[in-house]
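Hello forum,

I keep getting stuck at the same step: I have a sequence, I want structure tokens, and every attempt I make locally crashes halfway through. Rather than fight my setup again tonight, could one of you with a working pipeline run this one for me? It's a single chain of 367 residues.
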Amino acid sequence: GLSLDVIEKVLSEPALSGWAGFGVVVQAYGPRAGVVIDALYDMAIRHDRKIMVRLVKGAYWDTEIKRAQVKGVEGFPVFTQKAATDVSYIANARKLLNMTDRIYPQFATHNAHTVAAVLHMAEDKEKFEFQRLHGMGETLHNIIMEKHGTHCRVYAPVGAHADLLAYLVRRLLENGANSSFVNQIVDEDVPPEVVAADPFESLSDTTLHIPTGPELYLPTRVNSMGFDLMHTPTLDVIESARAPWKAHSWAAVPLLTVEAKPKKAVRLLNPAASSRSPGTVRNASPADVQAALDNASVWDTPLEQRQEVLLRAADMLESHYGEIFALLAREAGKGLPDCVAELREAVDFLRYYACQATNTPPAGCFT
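Reply #2:
Ran it on my machine without issues. Output:
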């Protein structure tokens, strides 16, 4: 990924040779955490570096979930159950403890079960450290340092009020959650067995399902198809779908129900390259519109058939996304994010109104 490319570029700088202060944070709530750690270890070996890796559970869970739903993509970039994140943290902690020849692990946690797991796996207390936030977990880590001789670094955010407020709000949301260890440890109504529950056991009991992708609005309607534009394979698929239309010339004409005088075709311009026209358009005249209205019959098509037309149109737009993206780029100069947004908006409208028609009383014919 781009972040790892940037990290490696910095890490390879000759000026950093012999310096062991370069640090990276890895979030355990991401399924890719283990792969990222492996990549960092490989970099450290290849560039002959000693680096610090701070392992955290992750502070943007709500944002990641919501972003995936808004994008309409299938699946999430983070684990959806807390137990899965706890298991991931322990698994990646063990991985880091086996890489201490190149990595100095820093375990940021206030969870007593996680701390106990790290202590159980670690062979040398001098080759890693714990970390806690200022004002949190002080009692726990003081006991651990006194009993086991570990090190604990206190993490204290520094900055202006405007910069710190968002950070502090995230901490309140994170630690105020019912599943938070920090919240449970001070709640006398929560039994000790629940506070110190083994995440490996509770993981199999989780049944939480968070909808996203096509099923986001079910059973009402199917969500519009999303594209993860941060995913290189997805970009390759989009480019393959657009490629056949790279030099295509479209000829847009009005669909008339009556004879009409042929109009002169107007040549369209590509905003990014005026010499490469995407095609031509023949516009309908006011007389053509009036003639179409005069010849139109009363639309008494059954509701189910009207819905089917809208839903079929939505499916056809999605299946021809490559051509649509190419046309939007060549005629309107739109980048991929805008192309995706325009397609998804059109598809959403078609499916939304097809479903709304079922629950909307008929208003009769308009004249």
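Strands lie at 23-27, 51-56, 103-108, 129-133, 152-155, 250-252, 266-267, 279-281. If your local run keeps crashing, start a new thread with the error log.
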